Amino acid sequence: MKVVLLAGGTGGAKLAHGFAGVCDPADLAVVLNVADDTERHGLLVSPDVDTVLYTLAGLVDPAQGWGVAGDTFTALGMLERLGEETWFRIGDADLALHVRRQHLLRQGLSLTDAVADIATALGVGARLLPATDDPVRTRVLTDDGELDFQAYFVRNRQVDEVRGLRFDGVEAARPTRAVLQALRAAELVVIGPSNPLVSIGPILAIPGMREAVVASGARRIGVSGIVAGQAIRGPADRMLGSLGHEVSARGVALLYSGLVDTFVIDQADAELAPSIGELGMEVAVLPTVMRSDADRAALAEALVALAEATDTRGRMLGR
Amino acid sequence: MKVVLLAGGTGGAKLAHGFAGVCDPADLAVVLNVADDTERHGLLVSPDVDTVLYTLAGLVDPAQGWGVAGDTFTALGMLERLGEETWFRIGDADLALHVRRQHLLRQGLSLTDAVADIATALGVGARLLPATDDPVRTRVLTDDGELDFQAYFVRNRQVDEVRGLRFDGVEAARPTRAVLQALRAAELVVIGPSNPLVSIGPILAIPGMREAVVASGARRIGVSGIVAGQAIRGPADRMLGSLGHEVSARGVALLYSGLVDTFVIDQADAELAPSIGELGMEVAVLPTVMRSDADRAALAEALVALAEATDTRGRMLGR
Hints:
2 copies of one chain form a homodimer.
Chain A: E1 3-7, H1 11-22, E2 28-32, E3 38-40, E4 43-45, H2 47-56, H3 74-81, H4 92-106, H5 111-121, E5 127-130, E6 137-142, E7 145-148, H6 149-155, E8 164-168, H7 177-185, E9 188-191, H8 200-204, H9 209-215, E10 219-223, E11 226-227, E12 230-231, H10 236-242, H11 249-255, E13 262-266, H12 273-277, E14 282-286, H13 293-316
Parallel strand pairs in A: 1-2, 1-9, 2-5, 9-10, 10-13, 13-14
Antiparallel strand pairs in A: 3-4, 6-7, 6-8, 11-12
């Protein structure tokens, strides 16, 4: 089954890893958020892309869920000594990746091609596709003004109440040809359990992306990143609340209304199924919390099974 | 005494270190060869500048004479894995310096200003002045064609017979304003015991540089990097030979003829003094081989004393 996964860096990376173990790598494309990209030390840093890259390459630091396991921090010490801001903590191997990507970009490669080059070098078979090659940057409106996303997320440790979000550059951005091709070929499109506002949101905000997802003809399944009213990781729950959304799986489902035909909620949220069903989507209740590699594979398998079943049922119903 | 030292990366760095211990840092300017600069991983690498920088900052790896003591090589391993050529072995702290410098250059700083920023951050008081801010690159003509200097020096480990040297871009290059000011203010100009052909040569080949040295009014002392017919380090001896120069301190003196008024040779070469004197320069015999920090300081002190003595004698003779 040809799968396209829309993903940010945390839950999305875990589910991507699950699919990578279940699907033929050639059948898996991960469409990645690039709106939390930033420039550090003159180098493009693409946190969501890199987290998925390191996770699929088996290099990720398992405790942190990002960065390279066992990385050293010699360069960061020198960068600090030389006057660079170092609150965004880049390890030496991670720095090397940024140096390599910047080198490829300077040689004229698109971000898509640079990421593909790096993914291949790291033995990642799945296609890792930046949602766009155009610059899009999430700006976070707080009571102290507008912040660069990483200034909010890493430097300020998400303490600011989020009053608004803006995806700078998104109006001029376009999905890449590779993303559009993957969506056209897809049999299953999954919106991963990433932050719906700042990981999935900027992907879907790219003009033409929503339409391409809907037009794909694939089964479209959303997975809630909110379980029992809380984000598994990160500030999605507080952010939903401060921006006036319902802080629940149903709140996420509302954001994907009209986009997915099936919405997956965790067993902990089973009682929300009827009210989500009323939004015009089918609801599936599955174990969605991925604590182990086995959990990731099980969720990916269940999603594939769900798509196959829905598909069969769809055909039976003459859809 | 206001001292300007023309230096490459090896002997020049040691003598710079000697002067830094002897002079008021504000009175020391080191004019640095940039013709063996290269681009690695999309970053400018400036080996002679960096060696002098690390030496004066007390960071240099003492065994190698270049690079940062105790550096790690995590990034290099990742760069290799990602497909970058890694025969030029950059440690993690060293990479950080290149990243920082490139960041400053991209912000619009000149090389001179970027190096000054880094030197200050590392607590180096002496002025480290790239000979030029314009790109000059040494190309080495070998039997296998023309090589980038670092390809000859590092990748090929200087095994190629050097048939010719070309300083690409030198015709359009100019000494920086900072270099010209330092030379005008100098009371002593020393040509360090660096490779006369590829370290000192490209500095002097910059149009206007020789004239500025001669016009400075300072005492001008050259120090032979060839002792007993051999280079202390590096391929200067073989290079002199293959390019048709005399492989001796006198061969070096010939290259500086008309430029220095005094030439310093090592005690091992005392018998060459009369023949060098015939070239129209005074000859001083000193211990020039710098094995220890004390040796470096002693040579610097002896050069200052020589300049003071020569100066007095000069005045006495009505010069």
